[in-house]
Amino acid sequence: MWPALVIPTFLFLSCFSVGSAQIPGSVTDGNDRYPPFWDQINGDIAEFPVQDNKIIIDIWKYKDRLQIYKILIRESNKYFVQFGKNDTGNVLWGLTLFYGKLYKTGRFVKPSNSSVCAYEGEFPGCISIDSGWGGFNFYVLTIYFLAAIESGFLRNISQEIVFLSPEEHRSYFCYSIEECRASFPQAMDAAKKFYQYLQSRKILSIVGDTPVYNTDKDTAILYMWDAHQALIDIGKPMFNDIFQYSSATERDFTFNFLLAIEFCAAAIYRSFFESSAEFLVGFPHRPLTDEDDPILPSDLNIREKALMSSVTLISNINQMTGGSFLTVWKKAMNVSKITQFLGRLIINNLLLIPNT
Ligand SMILES: *[C@@H]1O[C@H](CO)[C@@H](O)[C@H](O)[C@H]1NC(C)=O
Ligand SMILES: *[C@@H]1O[C@H](CO)[C@@H](O)[C@H](O)[C@H]1NC(C)=O
Ligand SMILES: *[C@@H]1O[C@H](CO)[C@@H](O)[C@H](O)[C@H]1NC(C)=O
Ligand SMILES: *[C@@H]1O[C@H](CO)[C@@H](O)[C@H](O)[C@H]1NC(C)=O
Questions:
Q1: Residues 6 or more apart from 258 whose CB is under 8 A from it?
Q2: Partners of 267 in the beta sheet?
Q3: Given a cut of 80, is residue 6 above it in pLDDT?
Q4: How far is Cα 51 from Cα 58, in angstroms, rounded to an integer?
Q5: 39 Cβ closer than 6 Å to some ligand 2 atom
Q6: Could you say which residues form the signal peptide (predicted)?
Q7: Please, which pLDDT band fits residue 29 given cuts at 50, 70 and 90?
Q8: Residue 136 region, left (φ>0) first, then alpha (ψ -120 to 50), else beta?
Q9: I need a labelling partner for 99 at 20 to 30 A (CA). Which of 121, 134, 138, 215 fits?
């Protein structure tokens, strides 16, 4: 009985946060939507130093992670040309823009000293090994990257990849294909499935000089989210042991947000450039503190408040229903493309059209 009532209840409650106001003048135009320093790196694996025939990557440096994102975007662009001009239809933009957002909003700092690894608007920045968001991002990015190599998706790479591995928390992370495969085989396979799907695509037509592949956007986005979830699931249990947050409020927000992302993923939420940039406008511009009003800190703008109250609402309903909300939502989203479409509509209503 309960489960059947969950979604109607949610829709009812969400009416309170959905007004008829128009999308407020979006502050999302221009190049500041790209991750910081995006144009200053070239997305070429040859940029990494090579020692003893090994490619050396400092995975706790902002720039090195950014370089990897750009490599993955560049190498996969050709499968997505029909979904947006200037390569904005690549489904990996969601993860890439989120990475930039985390850095810009100061979420890679050392929680015990926020001036370590702060965003200072200059290269090179670092990512604190104690940062909760830095840890989640570690798993997401490294496994996406190593799976791309393992599956032969980045065909140019002939050398072995080595991540510089700090002693700190050594056993919680994996620093090579062998280590990551041994520790997280399911997540590696989930990420590989995404690349194998792309590799299996065929050229459908040529428009101008550009080949267009027969990529199905729902399938590509589904595999992208499936891999993302597998990687978040790795990070979650580690969090109590090593990851830290600047505050309990920020930690709770992190987990509520990641839960909300599961709802988005089930609805095959579009992870193209434009939709992701729009979604992220509401991501709070600074880590939350315990002094903040737990509901709505006053210096957050209207979109940030909408995002925060939505993720809290989703998490509360899910808790009230003992997790049935997510289960029922996933089932409903799995019925047809129409329910997925409606699911995305609900999410957009919650996030993008806040009440004034
Ligand atoms: C791989 O090589 C091709 C041409 O040989 C080049 O266009 C492409 O940028 C290279 N990819 C990377 C990641 O270096
Ligand atoms: C095209 O994309 C690049 C980044 O990949 C960006 O720097 C550039 O501004 C974009 N051009 C337009 C016209 O949006
Ligand atoms: C925080 O880190 C900065 C830079 O590393 C250092 O100068 C400062 O003394 C540290 N502050 C504390 C309270 O540890
Ligand atoms: C979605 O439906 C398909 C069959 O249509 C089923 O194989 C799959 O397990 C379902 N997935 C979920 C998450 O319920």
A1: 136, 232, 236
A2: none
A3: no
A4: 13
A5: yes
A6: 1-21
A7: low
A8: alpha
A9: 215
